[in-house]
Amino acid sequence: MKKLLMLFLIIFMTGSRVYAQTYEILGNLGGELEEFKSLYDGEELFGYLELHKLDKIDARQNKYKYIILDKNFNKISTNEFVIARQVPNQRLSQALFNKGKVLLGFTELASGGFYKNQQYVLIDIKTAEVKKPFTLQNYQLMNTENTVLKDSFDKFYNEGGLAYKAKDKGFLLANRSISGSYSFMKNGIFIDLDGNQKWILPTKVGETPEHFYEYDFLANDEKSIALKANYFKKKKYLSSKLLILDTENGKESAFSSMDESGKKLVINTVKFIGDDLVSIGEYYSGDQTSAAFTMNKLGIFKKSYKRNGGNVVTNSYVPFTDLATYVPIDVNGKIAKEGFLDFKDFEIRPDGTHLVFGETFKSDFMSGGYKFTELFYLILDQNFKVVKMASNEVNKSLYPKYRYGQSIQNNNGYASFFIDPDQEKKLVLNILVYNDATKSFKLEKIDLEKKDSNTWFFAAKNGYVGLIEYFKKDKKNPGGKQAELHLEKIYIE
């Protein structure tokens, strides 16, 4: 799965549908359902995390219960744990699966709407052991059990953070630095699967005290971690470089420029393929300091670097004007009658074929916003040359339709999911399905009907779509059922 399915609107399947699998979350577990999250093993779904907040032990501690389910809703691990808090509003921010371990990240809402005080607990699924809560503060790994985190006047205060996994190796814990609406990694520590510190992120020093680097996470695999090193002078963004580190010891294997003369690159998908780090996305006129506006968008790109050394291997561009053979499109991606083309999902198949999915949008006078019109897809060959472009006419909507993409069963193809979110009486799930064997697409549709219940989509195993319906405890629900989950088979092969 490349992207998590966003929670969206109030929807439910039509009554005529038969659910393949159902799972109920009951109130007799104690406490309230806090989160239900998908867990991934690489790009494959492993299972789910069900998290309940059991109690507030005191003003500074919360008690939680976790349940780990496999992708068929079978319970495989459960336990309870306590974690410290500084303010009442604490939430689960991350859940990462890695070789039988699950890392949970908790954060708190600070004044101004920002999150801070990131803490972690590490779960061993096999033994159900929960490691004592810990945090990364000022380059130090610290236990937080039965303590409160420091406030903003203390040197150990942190602005929150994120964790990233290196498959079968461990996790990179990163503290944030918030600048305006942007959040960057300012330091980090890599821990192994038992929670032991392995190495500290080797941050770069600027040419003067006013110059510094902050980092965006790009990709990782068993061998390497790739970061985008953003170079600043005070608050001014200057340039960016690719920093690749050895997962085992944190040693640098590449530090090279990512900037492109006369172009601003906006990466959508980036991953290691063999000895190369491959990035794909959209590009704009300008340079690395330019804003990415629709009116200066020019097309799509593929740029790849050597894992060792960071030398550029591939640097290919497809301007929108190259698509004029297929559709009436201008230099900035505006298609006649449909609006601007916005690509959302990029995929590289095992044979090297590139798939690109998007939708068009245009200004809508009545709503004062945008109307999203048609779905489009591109097929490009191994050399990033366009082989085919086509569109699918769907219902117009006032919100973007794209939700997520995933490989279909047995990795025989790829499906990209688009949902019409604002139809009057029903919603429509549009699935663009690519078949590796025939190198062709088809559009599958599932009609959804609105119902007076709180129900959202969630990511499911290959070949299925998931729905979770939340319930209120009232006369109609005396048993206190909190949620019900359904998996339904999608015939997309």
From TrEMBL:
Origin superkingdom: Bacteria
Name under which the protein is recorded: Uncharacterized protein
InterPro entries: DUF6770 (IPR046661)
